[in-house]
Design brief:
The protein is mainly alpha-helical. About 70% of the residues lie in helices and about 10% in strands. The protein has a domain of about 80 residues: Multidrug-efflux Transporter Regulator, Chain: A, Domain 2.
Length: about 120
Amino acid sequence: MLAATDELLTAQEVGERLGVHERTVRRWIEAGRLPAAKTGSSFAIRVEDVEALAGQSVRLKALPRLAERDRDAEHIELQGRYKQLSEMFERLEAELADERRRSARLEIQLESRAA
């Protein structure tokens, strides 16, 4: 595991050092590419392990490409989610318009009965 003398970083700190998003670092951890110890809701990552990962990537040349692929995948995912939410919003607007028409009809009926 981790020795008490090891310098430790969080996933966010690793991301900042390598120029990638924290989620990318967490994906590397989940995929087993970057060893880390779970500490509550964050990770403790040894600097040596970060340097080893960076060395595997030919001194960070591959990391920007990996980060770009992650950004592309996130962008596609967000586009899909945006489309889903837009469709849901349109359905809700249509339902609201129907409810307003029903409400207006009921008010007219109530006014005609009261008169």
